[in-house]
Amino acid sequence: MRAVVNLLTPAHEHEFEATHGLPEALPRGETQLWQGSPSAVLMARQALHLDLVLVYFGALLLWRGVGSWYDGETLAQTLWALTRMLAPISLAVLLIGGLAWLMARSTVYTITDRRVVMRVGVVLSITFNLPFAQIASAGFRERGRGQGGDIVLSLGGEDRIAYLHLWPHVRPWQLKRTQPMLRALSDAKAVAQTLATALQEAEAARSALPLRAVGAVSARGGVPTLIANPEAQLA
After folding, report:
1. What distance in Å separates the CA atoms of residue 181 and residue 231, rounded to the nearest whole number?
2. pLDDT in tens, 152-210
3. 109, 36 contact by CB (below 8 A)
């Protein structure tokens, strides 16, 4: 009997994955340390700039109200004019919120003791495997109280990932040397600590490889700054 798959059920969205969020089961000896997804609310506000969109629409409403008052319209006429504007505004906000929800729902970040895996893409899913050996530095950027944060990964070597393939899971405007980013995490600080520990332990296990750093991204320049030296433990 042929099986029937409910495509609307989230559990079946990536039914061909051997393990949730991973293209294949982890090899023997590799341990998953953390797995999660972006916050849809934070994704809408930070990646899709919902706050700025709301400010823009608010300014339009204010402009329309002031214009109606200046033209001598009655209060009822002014309220009616503003009410007619609410329909397209609400539609735009719903579209942004829906896109953010789809982005968050289809994204899975995974940290193991050997690599970072990013499964991204709303229509076409793409999985990026980023071994620790290819991560030159990792930076934590806090967005503010109650706004979560991001983890920026700087890649070493000559290989690059196209900016559009990663967006919005990429550090903004770094087009030449793209930097993958675990974005809009509500528990970003705890995740950053998990990644920092994993990078330090991996570096200690292969002391002959180049320095790995786990850093914080400065608020102004956005440049990762060294806050932990994994090789210091080997001295």
Report:
1. 24
2. 999 887 778 888 889 999 999 888 889 999 999 998 889 999 999 999 888 887 664 44
3. yes
What lies within 8 Å, CB to CB, of 25 at 6+ separation is 18, 19
pTM greater than 0.85: no
Q: How many distinct helices (H) and strands (E) make up the chain?
A: 5, 9
Tell which phi-psi region holds residue 21, choosing left (phi > 0), alpha (psi between -120 and 50) or beta: left
Upper half-sphere CA count for residue 51 (Cβ side, 13 Å): 7
**Is the previous residue joined to 131 through a cis bond, with omega within 30 degrees of 0?**
no
Cβ burial of 128 (10 Å; 0-12, 13-18, 19+) is middle
- HSE of 118, CA atoms in CB hemisphere, 13 A: 23
How far apart (Å, rounded) are the C-alpha atoms in residues 209 and 151? Answer: 23
